[in-house]
Amino acid sequence: MNITGQIKRFIFKVNRFVDDRVISNIILYFRTRVTFFDKFIKVIEYHRGLYRYPNQMLGRKMDINFDKTDVLVFAAHPDDDILGIGTVLYRHRLKDEKIKVVFVTNGTAGNGESWYRRKDKAKNRANLRYHEGSLALAQIGVSKKDIYCLGLPDGGTQRYMKQMAVDITMLINKLNPNRVYVHGIEGGHIDHDMTSFAVKSTCHKLGYFNVFEYTQYYPAQPIGTEKVKFLSSTIDKTGVEMIEISEDERKIKRKMLSFHKSQGVDKYYRQGETIRKAELKNSDIELYRYCPISSSCLEPLVQDFQMNIFFSELTVLESENHSV
Ligand SMILES: [Zn+2]
Predict the structure, then answer these.
(1) For residue 253, how many other CB atoms are within 10 A of its CB?
(2) Which of 67, 219, 256, 260 is geometrically suited to a Cys-Cys bond with 79, CB 3.0 to 4.6 A?
(3) Distances (CA, A) of 261 to 129, 206, 257, 258, 265
(4) Residues 216-226: tens digit of each pLDDT
């Protein structure tokens, strides 16, 4: 390619990046303040055939095998599992425990959310993120058949809370794991907070209590922090465990992160790991306190989870959608 062609290509790339960043920021501004905005996006997603639960969800991989499950991990995006608890998972594998990992979103956002990206591009991105996630987990012997994706839009979990709760109900009921890991609510990423709230609230309703949460990043704790701590909480939490990561374990964590090439996260290999038993009740208090969505937008979501009728609807939906 001649020099003019190279310059044109460079300008195109910069333009594209700026456009996506500008659009993403405008979307973020509105979707955290105006309830109607997310409903509007959901209509677009439906009409474009991107997200129609449960059979048409971009990047969904739910070919569940119901064999023994010691550890079930919920990660909003492929790579959160490694950044948040890569070493914890490695130690479970050393004890020959069986791990299953659920990516809640398809990881398609990057430089633009899937609802306004070209469908084929979003699809390729979803495939790539899952592929990278499975290569990383293969390093500690978690096979592809044990890695699922709910196929929710990256950056748009708040639009599909009910669907997420249906899937969580099915996974907990069918896999009956010994232990569950999920994000804490900490205001680092809306998808992390939504995943945490949905998992904790659903497990509470199901009477499943062995849930642990992990911290990752939030405004006062940038990604890559070595000694990660939970935010102080209004809810009494005990049994915080900071993982001392050995140099050998660090190498494994770094190697796993290196497979997430599209994210460039291997530079955060020093990210620490801290876990604690999750308090399942009243996680709405944390949501209102830390999640960067306005209270008026959060209220309808929280109310859904507080209504018993919501959970009886889930049971019906679950038996219709996942009968095996
Ligand atoms: Zn994430």
Answers:
(1) 27
(2) 260
(3) 9, 37, 8, 6, 7
(4) 999 999 999 99
- If you measure from the C-alpha of residue 24 to the centroid of ligand 1, how many angstroms do you get, rounded to a whole number? 16
What does the pLDDT look like over 88-117, one tens digit per residue? 999 999 999 999 999 999 999 876 788 878
d(CA 54, CA 40): 20
pLDDT tens sequence across 9-62 = 665 565 555 556 677 777 777 767 777 788 888 999 999 999 999 999 999 999
Architecture of domain 32-321: 3-Layer(aba) Sandwich (3.40)
Distance 74 CA to ligand 1 centre (A): 11
298 and 33 in contact (C-beta within 8 Å)?
no
Domain boundaries defined on the chain: 32-321
Question: Which pLDDT score, from 0 to 100, does residue 273 have?
Answer: 98
CB 291 within 8 A of CB 190: yes
Apex 102 CA angle, 243 and 155, nearest 5:
95
